[in-house]
Amino acid sequence: MTSRRPAIAADITSLFAERNTHAVEVAVLQPADPFLDMAGEDLRRRIFLTESETGQTLCLRPEFTIPVCLDHIASQAGTPRRYSYLGEVFRQRREGGNEFFQAGIEDLGDRDTAAADARSLADAHALLSLTLPGRSLAITLGDQTVFEAVLAALGLPRGWRMRLARAFGSASMLEAALADLANPPRNSQLSGDVATLVLDGDVEGLAAHIADGMEEAGLSASAGRAPADIARRLIEKAELRSVRLSNEAFSALKDFLAIDVALGGATAALESFATGAGLSLGAALDNFASRAKAIEAHGLPAATIRYDAAFGRPLDYYTGLVFEIAAEGGDRPLAGGGRYDRLLTLLGAKKPIPGVGFSVWLDRIEALRGSAP
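Now predict its structure.
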């Protein structure tokens, strides 16, 4: 580890203490499986992997949210509880070093999700305002739950909803998925037995057929994706190819994704969209409106906050609010975060624990501080 601890670290940890958080440290070496399963394709490509003496696949800590949640589960601490951290993460990057510092807060167990979401955004904004005094900041919000509510209201089958939800946050993946939805590709050529099993939706039978084929070819089932995963994916692809969205529904989806407005007008814009498209967004819209009011109550500069219906973040565990904060006119986020209500259960928690959090890139902040006039 060669990175230099940022000069602004003391100010950040003081802010965290003022915000009633529990400082936490987690190990640099982490089990790799949770990141490979839940962190998203973009991060998975950048992880540094290694192996323990017992053969367990490990990785250098690529982010803090998953390790903090695992530590919370292991400690059996009560909730609500707010954790803060400041330390190095390790991942391959297109720009900058592969070792760099991040800081952030993970807010676990608060059932008032609107208040917790607004507090997380306010905490991130306060950290950046402290470390970049006088710098204008731009906030972009998205909402995975609203996006999924639109997909459900349009009557899309589960397979398509899952594919589009996975693409949320990646402009290229979303564009490709929408192109396939508008003009489904033809069925690929499959062998007779496989084609029959796929057509019947027989996951178990198809998985067994794939496992037999792998064994005959001398391939280990543990060397890549499991036969059951391959079988489910083949059946899902066949189901996706069988669906074509109506012109009206496709137009409505495009209209939704084009919504990009100041947060103060976002609830009205969503209501207008839903009414015009003849859709009911139910609780997703109610929760969005409650969060918008909670954010307004924190006194953040309203003119700098925008809601972009197509905005997401490239981590698979987000379930609701997603946000990024950048310097006005900047092309890279300084902070990013969101809600992840399913994550702790997937990591082994015995009961659901809602969560929301953010992290900041301290090397990017330092670069801006160094360039200040």
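The radius of gyration is 22 Å.
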